[in-house]
Design brief:
Layout (H helix, E strand, L loop, with lengths): L13 H18 L6 H8 L3 H5 L5 H16 L2 H5 L6 H17 L3 H10 L1 H27 L8 H14 L3 H6 L4 H14 L5 H5 L2
Helix pairs in contact: 1-4, 6-11, 7-8, 8-9
């Protein structure tokens, strides 16, 4: 039989909840969520299960808080891309610099477990991708209106970013292509802003 929920009143302490999921997150990232148990959570926190239940009603609630923690980090990209006080290409470079540590701290194992075990929470990931695409489309459109970017459909440009960022959470992709995250971002940036074809002078030197 499953564990009956406790009828005690939960403690409303957002700071404590956040502190705990920051401790727990590396375990979620490295080992996934498939075999996650409240006993393991309590052990990682150095607390009793009854103490954990004072702040979280269920395992899913803990995972949801951990996801909220990472989503807040991911959403930091919007302020960078939307900062019109910074040159457009510098903005994109800053975006890349910001996203490297954030994305490499998310594992494909964690993402897959979210998708299969917690589909309701996975929807938040999809919503983030959709929102990020809209923000990036606005960014590209701004560049086109200013005459900085070529007139290419913004939806296609943001879609390429979406695919790229999704691959960055997959260590297999990086390993198979002998890439470090920093190298992948640098080369993607070069492709995005300098294009694939060499100029006449560059071609002559190759």
């Amino acid at each position: 039989m499953g564990r009956k929920s406790l009828n005690r009143k939960r403690k409303e302490n957002p700071k404590k909840r956040r502190e705990w999921v920051i401790i727990l997150y590396p375990h979620f990232r490295d080992f996934g969520l498939k075999d996650l148990r409240m006993e393991t959570i309590a052990e990682l926190l150095g607390k009793s299960k009854s103490t954990v239940y004072e702040y979280f009603s269920t395992k899913e609630e803990i995972v949801a808080e951990a996801l909220a923690y990472k989503m807040e980090e991911l959403m930091g990209f919007e302020a960078i891309v939307s900062d019109k006080g910074i040159d457009l290409t510098v903005r994109y470079q800053k975006l890349m610099e910001y996203m490297i540590p954030v994305l490499t701290d998310i594992s494909s194992l964690l993402m897959e477990d979210l998708k299969t075990i917690f589909p309701d929470l996975w929807e938040q990931i999809n919503m983030f991708y959709d929102h990020a695409s809209q923000v990036l489309e606005t960014y590209y459109l701004e560049g086109m209106e200013k005459g900085v970017f070529r007139k290419i459909r913004p939806a296609l440009l943001s879609l390429s970013d979406r695919f790229f960022f999704q691959e960055m959470v997959d260590p297999t992709f990086l390993k198979e292509n002998n890439l470090k995250p920093e190298e992948a971002f640098r080369e993607y940036f070069e492709l995005k802003f300098n294009g694939l074809l060499l100029g006449s002078e560059e071609a002559a030197n190759h």
